[in-house]
Amino acid sequence: MHADTKYAGEDQQMTDRDKAEIFIDEPRRRTPVAGRYDVIVCGGGPAGTAAAVRAAENGASVLLLERQGSLGGTWTGSLMTWLMDVENKSGLLDRLTDGICSLGSLYCRQHGDYSFCPEDMKCVMEQMAVEAGVSLLYHTMLAGVITEVPQGGGVPAVKGVITESKSRRQAFLAPVIVDATGDGDAAAMAGCSFFMGEEGTGRMQPMSMIALVCGLSVRDVRPFCLNYESCPGEAQRHFQELFASCGIRLSYSMPVLTHLKGDLFSVSLNHEYQVPCDDARQITDAVIRARAEVLGALHKLAAADKRWESAIIAHTADAIGVREGRRIRGNYTVTREDLISGRTFEDGICDVTFNVDIHVSGKTGSGSWDDGGVCVKPYQIPLRALIAADVRGLVLAGRLISGDFYAHASYRTGGNILKIGEAAGVLAAAAARTGVAPDEVPFDVVREVLGSGIGT
Ligand SMILES: Cc1cc2nc3c(=O)[nH]c(=O)nc-3n(C[C@H](O)[C@H](O)[C@H](O)COP(=O)(O)OP(=O)(O)OC[C@H]3O[C@@H](n4cnc5c(N)ncnc54)[C@H](O)[C@@H]3O)c2cc1C
Fold first, then answer.
1. pLDDT under 70 in the chain at which residues?
2. Whether 162 and 226 share a structural domain
3. CA–centroid distance, residue 32 to ligand 1 (Å)
4. Is residue 53 part of a domain?
5. Integer angstrom CA distances of residue 370 from 164, 374, 410
6. pLDDT score, position 15
7. Which residues of 410-438 are buried (b: 16+ CB within 10 A; e: fewer)?
8. Which ligand 1 atom lies nearest to the CA of residue 68?
9. What is the CATH number of the domain that holds 446?
10. How far is the CA of 22 from the CAs of 18, 43, 61, 213, 280, in angstroms?
């Protein structure tokens, strides 16, 4: 390894670290290299899973590391069970749809959106990754990114990652890394510049704790269900009025009830404001507050309304849902203006039709969402927004790609995230296979592999 090899994770600025008055010097250590791959995907959410599957199907040896014990990220671990902006998408989405329907997920199609059972999604994603030949590593935390500055200087290049798990500290090497951690952990560790929150104001989208509830009668709760009302806003309004009529005040004033399967439902009624994705202390406090609110509200509802008295809170999410983390600077940054003008690109990889969806804090503390005054015309995400600007060999996938606050609030939805992941995987495999940096891969190569699925 080159003398300038840098374990960038060691340099990461952290809030607790900033606050610390005392530091200790850790002893130097020798870390075993546990594997070599063409592509390492960090984070097994929808974007990471799509990237890993697509990279493996395109001939790359792929390691997919995930801190939780399943794939799906926000869609499974955070119980987010409603996919939006899927109407004009094909590719992996079709395979996921077939898989979860065969397991009995309701997958109710309403207003062009879909619901699903997170357990079914977990199984289908895992099976898909295994069948594609992806090497999965669960309960494994990304702890650092190994970068190397070329002889004579220049942009550092990725060489591999450092992980922490039950196997202790290990290194895995690859010429191409895909950051699909949602929060941009890998990119930040590698020294990439990034944005968090709204430019100027610093406001961030809130986190939310979602719960699974069973024991309800579909007939009784139908008017509150997103799946069954012809206008989703109406179902949310009915649900909010139900809580209000029982004297229950919520931090999210547009609560969501979604029917998933049998008598299983998901409930989203909580907002946790201004919690940064890189502060474990603040996230923990938010989780404790959120869980107390969710359980408290549902218990009160069960006591006050006959239709809810047999409700059983089956599960609160293993991970609080993070709408917004770091947005990593790429070779192109998608902007609010692109959304307004409906901009398309020569290297467009995903057609986005979804509006801007900013969950805001109201004056009363009870928040809803708004479109930030942006009227979205269908627009595209260019492949360049998936290529990190500051570090060679780093591909971006999912909600962390290069975009401003408003653009992120639109393309962060399910169908787009999957499509972005697919493109990231194809690009990563092509770069690794041909031994070039991702920005040197001709776009035609990516277009050819994604075929007619590209942009749609
Ligand atoms: C509360 C909430 C409600 C939403 N509602 C909707 C909706 O109704 N419809 C819709 O379409 N979209 C919705 N979204 C948006 C959508 O779900 C997300 O944008 C999407 O899941 C992002 O996917 P991702 O793969 O980029 O990130 P994530 O789903 O966050 O996945 C990231 C993965 O990386 C892993 N990871 C993170 N850090 C590390 C690390 N250091 N080491 C190892 N692994 C790591 C995580 O465990 C996770 O599995 C919602 C999101 C939230 C949070």
1. 1-18, 106-112, 361-366, 452-456
2. no
3. 31
4. yes
5. 40, 9, 11
6. 63
7. bbbbbbbbbbbbbbbbbbbbbbbbeebbb
8. 47
9. 3.50.50.60
10. 10, 32, 43, 46, 19
Q: Which of 76, 115, 181 to mutate to test the pocket of ligand 1 (most atoms within 8 A of CB)?
A: 181
Tell me the CA–centroid distance for residue 88 and ligand 1, in Å.
21
- The number of distinct structural domains making up the chain is 2
Q: Note down the domain range covering 318.
A: 207-322
CA-48 nearest atom, ligand 1: 25
Give residue 58's pLDDT: 96
Question: Do 175 and 50 belong to one domain?
Answer: yes
- The alpha carbon of 339 and the centre of ligand 1 are apart by a number of angstroms equal to 22
Burial class (CB in 10 A: 0-12, 13-18, 19+), 445: middle
The sign of the torsion formed by the CA atoms of 207, 92, 43, 118 equals positive
Q: What is the pLDDT of residue 75?
A: 98
Helix (H) or strand (E) holding 237, with range, is helix 232-245
Ligand 1 pocket at CB < 6 A: 42-48, 65-68, 73-75, 77-78, 80, 82-84, 141-142, 180-183, 185, 208, 321-323, 398-399, 412-414, 417
Q: Whose CA is nearest to atom 45 of ligand 1?
A: 43
- Quick one: which atom of ligand 1 is closest to the CA of 143? 41
Residue 137 lies in a domain: yes
Give the pLDDT confidence of 179-213 residue by residue, as tens digits. Answer: 999 999 999 999 999 999 998 988 899 999 999 99
97 in any annotated domain: no
Last residue of a domain, one of 322, 344, 365: 322
Q: Are residues 37 and 50 in the same domain?
A: yes
**Based on the domain organization, do 335 and 438 belong to the same domain?**
yes
Closest residue (by CA) to atom 26 of ligand 1? 398
Same domain, yes or no: 185 and 248:
no
The verdict on 334 and 316 lying in the same domain is no
**Residue 222 and residue 249 share a domain:** yes
Residue nearest to ligand 1 atom 10, measured at CA: 413
Ligand 1 centroid–CA 42 distance in Å is: 13
> Do residues 153 and 238 both lie within one domain?
no
Distance 411 CA to ligand 1 centre (A): 12
Q: Which of 322, 337, 368 is the last residue of a domain?
A: 322
In a domain, 271, yes or no: yes
Closest CA to 380 of 352, 419, 418, 412: 352
